[in-house]
Structure formats: C-alpha cells, structure tokens
Design a protein that fits this description.
Distance between the termini: 50 Å
Low-confidence stretches: 1-54, 601-622
CATH topology of the largest domain: TIM Barrel
Helix content: 10-25%
Structural class: alpha/beta
Largest sheet: 9 strands, mixed
CATH architecture of the largest domain: Alpha-Beta Barrel
Number of domains: 3
Mean pLDDT: 82
Shape: globular
CATH class of the largest domain: Alpha Beta
Radius of gyration: 26 Å
Number of strands: 36
Length: 622
Amino acid sequence: MQHHFPKNPLPVSHKRNAVWWLLLIATVIAGHELPKLLASTGAPTQSVSASIENQAFLALTFGKVSNHPGLAISVNSLKDDLNAIKQAGYHTLSLAQVNRWRTTNNESLPSNPVLLTFEEANRETIEIVDPLLARLGMTATVFVDVAELEQANIHLVSWHKLELMAKSGRWEIAVSACPNGDDQGFANPALLAQKLSQQRQRLEQRLQMPVLVADCSRAWNPAYGDGAVIWPQTLTEAGFSMGFVAAASGANYHVDSPANLKRIRVSRTWAPAELVSHLNNNQPRRTEFVDQFDSALSASAWIVDRGEMTLEPGNLRLTNSPNEQGALISLAGTEKWRDADVEVQLAALPTGQFWLSLRNDPHRASIRLGIANGQVLLQESLATDVHRQLASVDATDGPLRLRLRVVGKGAMAYLNDQPLTQRPIAMPEGAEQGPVSLAVWQPESETADLTEALVNLSKVIAKPLEAKAGIINPVLDENGWQRLHDSVDQLAVLSPQYFAWQDGKPQVLAAYDNALEIFARYHHLSFQPAVVINSQTSLSDAPLLAEQLITWASEPGFDGLNLVLNDSMFDDGWRAFLTDLIQRIRQTGKTLTVTLLDVKQQSQPMDANDFLWVVTSSPSIN
C-alpha cells in the first residue's frame, strides 16, 4: 500500500490557512455573567466547545470530452455536470486563489469551493468546454504536456489557442509532469527537476503568466525512490508552488502538504446527481452521518482503499479482493476528525476479522474496536503492526452494535450499549486526528489460496464531537466536584482559573489544587489552566504577556494553557500575536487553547478565516 502516492481508489461494485494549530476557538453564551468572568476569581464554571476542522477545497478532474464519446465524456453529460455543480452552490476556484489561501493567513475561500481541472489540453475537449465555462461564469485549469505542444501534436490545442485561453481569465495552465506512463527520467530527481523547470519556464514565457502547479496523475513507481520525499523536493527545485498526485479521493485541507493535492476523478458514467453527491460527501463533515445503505448514492460517501465494497438495499458488503488479505474503506470527509462517536451495526458475525478505527493513520498507533475469533476486542494498534489487547468479551451470534467514542485523550468502546471498560482508555501518543475507517482481514492461510474476509453492515452512524473545555473554579466544593464528574465524559480539556492578566501585570488567582490535576490525568483530560485576559488589555502588553504565558505553560504538570479573551478585542493584531504564540508554545511541547467570550451570543464563524471558528457553547457544568 502506498500511503503518499496510492493507487486510484478501486471502483464500487453494485452487485463505490495555516497548519492545524491545536487552536480551539470557543464561544461562551453567558452575557450577564461575562463581567464576573473577566473580573472575578469566583467566575462561574463554563463548558465551552470548539470547531474540529479547517476549511478545505475540493478538486475535480475530467478526462476527454467529445461529440463522439465512446470512452470519453459526452457533451451533454458535461453540460449537465457543470450546471449541476453551479446549481448545488459550488463556486469554482483559480490556482492563484488556492495559493493565496495556502500562504496567507487572512485569505479565505468562497463557500463550497471547487477547482475544475482537465487532464490534458485536447483540442476537441477545449472547444467544447471553453464556451460552457464562459456561459456559466466558471474557471478551470488544464494540464499541458509541453513536449507534445512543442511537437505540434494535432490532437492538442495550438500554442496560439493556449495563449488565448490564458488571456480569457477562464483558464489557468499547469504542467503535466508524468504523461504516458513511466518515465525513466524520474529515476534521477535532479534531471526531473530540471525537466519540469524548463517546461514551467517555457509556459510562462509564452503565456506571460505564472505557472504554479505540476501534476503527476499516476501512482509513483517505488523503483524511483521514495515519492513522498522526491516529489516535494522536485517541485520546489523546479519552482512550483503546488502539485497534484494520484491519491484516494478527498478534500484538500489547509494543513495538507501542497505537494500532495488530491482530486476526485469524474466518471463518464456518473449522473449529475451522483457527481454532486461525491462533492457533498467529500466536503469536511461537520454534522452527524447516518447510512442505512438504502440509496445508490451511499457509494459516494465511502473511499475504497483496498478490497471490494458492494451496496445492496439495506446492506454494505465489504470483502477482500482475490490474492489480498483484507479490505479497507474510510468515510469521506472525516480525514481531519478528532473527537467522534461512531456506531456500526452488523447483521451477523464477520468471516475473518472486522475492525472499526477512529483517527486512523497507518503511520501511527491507534485504537481499534472489532471482532475476531468470536470475541469483541478493543486493541491498541501499534504502527509496527503489533496489537495490545485492552478489553474483550464474547460476541453473540445475532445482530451486533459496536460503538467507539473518542474525546480528547480518551476512548470508550461499547457492545450493544454496554461499555467494555469502566472508564476511558488512553489514546496512544500522537493519535490526534484521522478518518473513520472500517476493515476486514483474514490471517494468512496455510494453503496457497487466501480465505475470504467478509462483513455485512446494516447501518453506520458517525458523529463529529466538538472538543469541549471545562473552565472551572480553582477550588471546587462537593457540588462542583459532582457536576464535574457528571460532565467529564464530554470534556477534552480541564481548565481551572489559576491565572489572569490585568492592568499590564500577571496575577495568580488561586493556589494549585493537585486534586484537579490528578482528576484530569485519571480521566485522560488535557490539563490546561485558564488565563483570563482583561478586555482593556492593550496589544502593547503583548511582549510581556507572551513571555509570561510561555513561563506559565512550561510549568510541570501543565499540558498548556487556555487563554480566555473577549472576542471584541480579537482583531488582526491579536490574531498575529496568537499565531506566533501558538507556534512558540508548541515548540515547548505544550498546547495553547483560546476561548473567545461572546456577549452577543453569535453562533456564526467569527470571520472567513479557515482555522478560526466561533461555535455555540454547551451547557454549563456548574
């Protein structure tokens, strides 16, 4: 399996702005309590919640379009597809917009952003597509094989036509970096960079516009070395800002490598509704997903990494392909999920092993819940493919409901609503985000033929959870402790109000209560004491404030700090200050959480920035 340059997803059979900051921006709906919270050490306990994903964009790639379709996309199909994209509320992007969004903190994308790309500058394709783009007010990108252009290939547009396309404002031109299968020149990264640089310069000279992107639309040949290292280095040396690769379908997030951008390949057999379904399902998911497999469009919600997925009314069948041990699918749009609650319903015991994973990353340890050898098992799955068993219970023969819930640093597993452990188990270090994944697996057989691995699922419910921080009084009475116990399974961060910044000076509001830290460790909560910043604080205090916050965050026993600000003071200056501060605190191995207090009870995003979101609060825990 190639993780960085994987093969294209297997078809579904119907018999398929900044980095992730660890920055939690929250809203407390407590207008009448706000003055007390900012000015008093006896502030009410609040539970705040935070966004879980960054903004992202989707990219589509179309093959040849022809009046005589055959294996190409028909003219009518393309017309219907583009109209459906527009009517569904998607807005087309330019590569220049994507590059500004990627490199500028304050740059935002339009709602439902999508980049349209065409894999080659075929003469007939461009003659059909260009007037459609003009009529619909859309933009697109085409990848060009410069060598073929130089040879005046009659099937491609001419240099003159390409120049007119660039001047129209509807088209951006990019380089097709690896056309026509394997290229032996790729065995030498220096020669590859030189070749791509020459192609970029040639295009820029003729078109009088920047050429930002190169594309390698085939799986990387490992005989040429580690593509995850060679490809980004090659792009940089050749002067490109971004690059597309052959990869499973999915959204492109702000935190993703600009060298490994992904696209969704449009099938000529898709109806417009199916294309829109793929777009909708691959958007970052922020709401509950329920799939009972009662629609053919269910296929677009799942990304097939390996094996075969078959949809039937009320059933998803996942099995291994011939000569493979297992199958793996993931829920589209969950690539950056952190906290989540997922339940899968099985019609019967699987053949072989079945596993459900959250925050799945093949390069890191993770937690998985599944069935093997007649038992329901909760395991820590290590990156070295070694598994440590955490809990087990005998599985019944009838329908089964497996549920895995991850909040912050802890995870809970359930069989038919019964917990497998008495309290959350610790998530492995580094298991911070990743998709919802389902897999079946069959251990190697002693015979030459691999045994079938098979599972039938009747329902999947997947819900992203807002990361909640409990801001609490530094000293709790009996009632406060009880309320904290009652709410602990909802929390990822525990923040006693230990510190404040007022009148340009640091203040320690209370002595530390070791019981709170012990409680946080026992329940796998991140322990980040709250620092209340007075709303009159001037940005001129920033240098002293930053040094003090770093000092506090570095104290033993703290996982970082929860900085409590009034949202009215959060302007460009404060944003820049926090961006720098987050990076500095991360370098110490700690985390900065930012809570924005909102007296206006706003529930909309505070701005269009991709990594700063305001969300509504959860109920108070005190």
